[in-house]
Amino acid sequence: MQAETNTEELTYLYAFIPTDEYEKNPFPERKGMDPEYTIKCLPFDTITAVTCPVSHQEFSEEVLQKKVDNMQWLQEKAFHHHEMMNTLHAEYTVIPLKFATIYEKTDSLEQVIEEKKEHIHSIFHEISNQEEWNIKIYTVKDEFTQRIETYHPDIEQKKQEIEGLSRGKQFFEKKKLKELILMKAEEEIDEYCERIHEQLMKWSTDHEIKKNWERKLTGRTDDMCWNGAYLLPKEKVKSTLSYIEEERERARKKVFPFTFEVTGPWPAYHFSNFINRGEQSGG
Amino acid sequence: MSEPKVLHEHQPTGKIALDPEKAEEGLSQLVMTVVELLRQLVERQAMRRVENGSLTEEEIERVGEALLNLEEKMEELKEIFQLDDDDLNIDLGPLGNLM
């Protein structure tokens, strides 16, 4: 964000929505990111920018850099942004913008929209009547590995072979076996998740495989082994969720248990990135 | 080595406790961490040599037995100092864990 100190108000940009949808269903009055102001929808021809004026004293680049260290402030504002996206998504086809996308002047916002008009329209077209769903799969990797060690036929055979070796050789072979067990466990976990993913791809129009989060991020006692975002046509959501429910049931009965975490519907956060980070700064 | 004191129950933090009041505990944890790091490095080097065939059968037996004894000794020491595997690791932040 670039902001000049002589500007009184800046423009916080939440999202883009199609003007025809906005005209049919105007957005009700609501407090904005800066509670001193209300949400303002600015139609620029066929594209409407959902914005809120924010004060320069509170949201200039220099002030924001300090404020992001204030966890309470950040949490409150990020939550507001997130809530706004969900509200917009419930009513319109929405291209969500990243938190803290701020323009110095509406003229520059208009210029960006003009430049990116075709791309914005193509994203509207791609995400129209679609929902983003996030699907995460978890298992306790340590337990999974222990069970592989106990039940896998290859491992059992290898163990018997090692028993017949001398003490020194056993040391190295046991180390290799430990690596083999870890590898087999990873392979089986990957195979399981890939199988689910293959099925989900049949219903989704787009997907993004994300990095698995560590336990300290999830706060859970099991390990994330799949983290995918799927763009689903609304009419496919029901069958997708039923499939996950069936898999959830099957997984409960397995020797190697997997658990599913399904969240959605979300605005198409992962499928509507029309401006890269550098360009997104207001100018 | 002097008789180790009974240490308090603690949760692994991935950090070495160098509290001045508990310097002895922190120091033993630090020393054990360094020894464990060296032990693992030696073990990996030996494993590489076994796998690339640069050791004779007799050497493999000798090195394997030595490493096994070292591993057993480390387990004993961990029990004496009431440390577990997580205690002998250091959280290097964005670089991940030491071991």
UniProtKB/TrEMBL annotation, chain A:
UniProt xrefs under InterPro entries: GvpL/GvpF
Any single Pfam family the record assigns to this protein: GvpL_GvpF
GO cellular component: gas vesicle
Keyword Transmembrane helix assigned: no
Residues spanning the signal sequence: none
Keyword Coiled coil attached: yes
Primary localization: other
Subcellular location, record wording: Gas vesicle
Keyword tags: Coiled coil, Gas vesicle
Any single GO BP term: gas vesicle organization
Coiled coil: 155-202
Recorded family membership: Belongs to the gas vesicle GvpF/GvpL family.
Protein name, entry field: Gas vesicle synthesis protein GvpL/GvpF
Lineage, top ranks: Bacteria, Bacillati, Bacillota, Bacilli, Bacillales
UniProtKB/TrEMBL annotation, chain B:
Subcellular location: Gas vesicle
Keyword set, alphabetical order: Gas vesicle
GO biological process, one term: gas vesicle organization
Region Disordered, annotated ranges: 1-21
Pfam family, one: GvpK
Keyword 4Fe-4S: no
InterPro entries noted in UniProt: GvpK
A single GO cellular-component term on record: gas vesicle
Primary localisation category: other
Domain of life according to the entry: Bacteria
Stated family: Belongs to the gas vesicle GvpK family.
Protein name: Gas vesicle protein K
